[in-house]
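Reviewer comment 2.1 asked that we show a complete input and output for one of the modelled complexes. We chose the pyridoxal-5'-phosphate case, as it is the one discussed in the main text.
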Amino acid sequence: MEYIKTLKNSQDYINTELEYGAHHCRTIPVVLTRGEGVYVYDVEGKRYYDFLSGYSSVNQGHCHPKILNVLINQAKTLAACSRAFYSSTLGICERYLCQTFGYDKVLMMNSGAEANETAYKLCRKWGYEVKKIPENMAKIIVCKNNFAGRTIACISCSNYINCTKNFGPFVPNFIKVEYNNAEALENELKDFNVCAFIVEPVQGEAGVIIPSNTYFKKVQELCKKYNVLFVADEVQTALGRTGNLLSLQRYNVKPDITLLGKALSGGFYPISAILANNNIMLLLKPGEHGSTYGGNPLAAAIAIEAVDVIIKEKLCEKSEKLGKIFLNALRVYLQKSQIIKDIRGLGLMCAIEFKKEFTNMWNLCLKLKENGLVTMYVHERTIRLTPPLCITQEQLDECVQIILKTVRHFDNNVPEYANSCKPVLQN
Ligand SMILES: Cc1ncc(COP(=O)(O)O)c(C=O)c1O
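Response of the prediction step:
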């Protein structure tokens, strides 16, 4: 790693990335070099609260020592061996995940996009072999404004211009319905050729859009009624982010297939998983699906520890409790702001949406960074506030102060942080 030390400062690192890397991301000009718990540090040594958490992959906190330990030990023993052979970690991981999440079977993959791709294949196969949809006619219903990843099939589900423009032609037979609209869903479910409905419990990339409390119960009923598989894309929402191990547990709903990713690795390594019962998963026969790294021994060992940390450290409970306190505090202080449209969240998956007239989102993120908190905005209006779930109430309190100070820079209707309001933060 000697060569890394040849770069002098943040600007050097940025210039190097710009010169040698593809320019496919919008990136805040901060060069991170170290992470610990809720904090990340830049190359000049400045500390920030991380309010993006690697797009919710670091729910357990940066460089969690227990997960790190498992990673190191397993990496020293056996890291990759392909699925041509059994390994001494995979079955144990599979049993742990099935028992923890309440499904018969799990199929391990790597990215969230790959989990979605696997679900498309599995649902189509079920459609042909169980529901008896005529060959090549299967349709999958998805929601408008969803995000499933960046592969061709995943972007075929998308209606966002920056996901789709000049990337066509797209995979046919993805039908888009309005999110949080059971009636619109029912209209499409009537088509016999529909094999599945895939939905995010909260639409993260769309700006943390939370449906009504009754939506998913209704979805479950409708999917049963029309003999269509109900698939929850919990890649972002699960593992404590919204206050439960699985977000849909909140509504007492159990989909036929659940997709996990991101925090399944504690932010160390790409790992995803598809959970289903035997009647669906066993439709896949040897040789019909796979991925070189899917379910490798390193991933299997890490996934067990990553989930175990969430359970043992009560991160779901913390997320639920602190999320409410955080939103309450933001609402109290920011209610008079002229630039804010909405403050919302579920657990510690929170967001502030700004009004259309406020066109300074980039500068807002830069100001947040200057004040010691890093995050990013989505769809020109909404900043995501998704800290690692190991954050303490005191740290969250400091973050409220940073956010207020930052918003006040753009809108002086926002009051100064006052200790007299502090009880608001104390549940
Ligand atoms: C709900 C959801 N599904 C799938 C994905 C894609 O995951 P990945 O980037 O690991 O492919 C994301 C990523 O943000 C997501 O939020």
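The CA atoms of residues 109 and 290 lie 8 Å apart. We note this here for comparison with the apo prediction described in Section 3.2.
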